[in-house]
């Protein structure tokens, strides 16, 4: 399948496999949605990695050459937009499943391992689905859609939340790609490694995260992501509640009474 999903111990790996630069198709968005649902529901899996097969592309975005049907809704393409997945059967008729992917509530960490081109929808997924990012020396990031008359990536990706305003607008309005060094300078990625070291580095970071108590990781992620949308006071109160619930749930060691008795001489 174009999306390969595998579990290795307590780490899951999502690999985009669709030719040299790994463009996405409607079917791949649907595959990713159900793979993520499984990932989030499996308590044995503690961390994920998403990458692209080969070295030329993490994901070049939606394949604009893909043809898709108008579906079985009475209003054709408008109906597809208003009632996504309606009458599609086993084969998706458009890219609507990407909205389902972006709408998932996720408090389990995923590491992005970026090799080669990361463009368009691939960039949107990187920004939305990854918490830590490692890039190979040949990685490139961008939103070229504006050159094809397809604007809107700034709103879909909320790029300005992760990059300075002027940097985000340059990327969105010029369509220019950003190389790995520039991405690192703007903290879009955490680290740059040689292509042959990319997955080893990602697995090492994933293993480090997976060693921590899962409750602590979940609470840290939820406090962070929800707190970004709250006022300072509300974020503080919300975090305190989560912290107290976590402490209440910790299993205390049973008390050994003999530890508190004086020995008889």
- Globally, the shape reads globular
- The overall pLDDT average reads 86
Give the distance, in angstroms, between the N- and C-terminal Cα atoms.
74 Å
- In the predicted model, the low-confidence regions spanning at least 5 consecutive residues are 253-265
Please give the count of helices. 10
Q: What about the largest sheet?
A: 6 strands, mixed
Beta strands, count = 10
Strand neighbour order, sheet with most strands: 1-2-3-5-7-10
Share in β-strands? 15-25%
Q: State Rg.
A: 22 Å
Kindly name the structural category.
alpha/beta
Strand-and-helix sequence, N→C?
A: EEHEEHHEEHEEHHEHEHHH
Helix content: 40-55%
Structural overview:
Helix content is 40%, strand content 16%. The chain is of the alpha/beta class. The strands form two sheets. The chain has a six-stranded mixed beta sheet, sandwiched between helices. A hairpin with a 2-residue loop joins strand 1 and strand 2. Helix 9 packs antiparallel against helix 10. The chain is globular.
Task: List the keywords.
disordered C terminus; 10 helices; single chain; six-stranded mixed sheet; alpha/beta
């Amino acid at each position: 399948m174009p999306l390969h999903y595998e579990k290795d111990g307590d780490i899951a790996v999502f690999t985009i496999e669709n030719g040299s630069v790994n463009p996405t198709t409607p079917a791949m968005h649907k595959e990713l949605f159900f793979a993520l649902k499984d990932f989030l529901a499996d308590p044995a899996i503690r961390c994920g990695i998403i990458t692209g097969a080969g070295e030329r592309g993490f994901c070049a975005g939606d394949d604009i050459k893909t043809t898709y049907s108008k579906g079985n809704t009475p209003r054709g393409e408008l109906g597809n937009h208003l009632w996504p997945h309606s009458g599609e059967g086993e084969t998706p008729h458009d890219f609507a499943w990407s909205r389902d992917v972006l709408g998932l509530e996720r408090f389990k960490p995923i590491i992005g391992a970026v090799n080669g081109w990361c463009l368009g929808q691939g960039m949107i997924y990187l920004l939305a689905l990854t918490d830590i990012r490692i890039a190979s020396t040949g990685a490139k990031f961008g939103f070229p859609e504006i050159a094809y008359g397809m604007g809107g990536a700034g709103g879909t990706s909320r790029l300005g939340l992760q990059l300075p305003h002027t940097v985000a607008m340059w990327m969105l309005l010029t369509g220019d790609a950003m190389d790995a060094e520039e991405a690192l300078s703007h903290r879009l990625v955490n680290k740059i490694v040689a292509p042959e070291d990319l997955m080893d580095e990602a697995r090492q970071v994933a293993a480090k995260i997976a060693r921590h108590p899962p409750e602590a990781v979940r609470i840290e992620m939820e406090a962070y992501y929800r707190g970004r949308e709250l006022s300072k006071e509300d974020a503080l109160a919300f975090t305190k509640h989560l912290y107290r619930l976590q402490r209440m749930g910790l299993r205390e060691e049973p008390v050994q009474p003999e530890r508190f008795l004086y020995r008889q001489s």
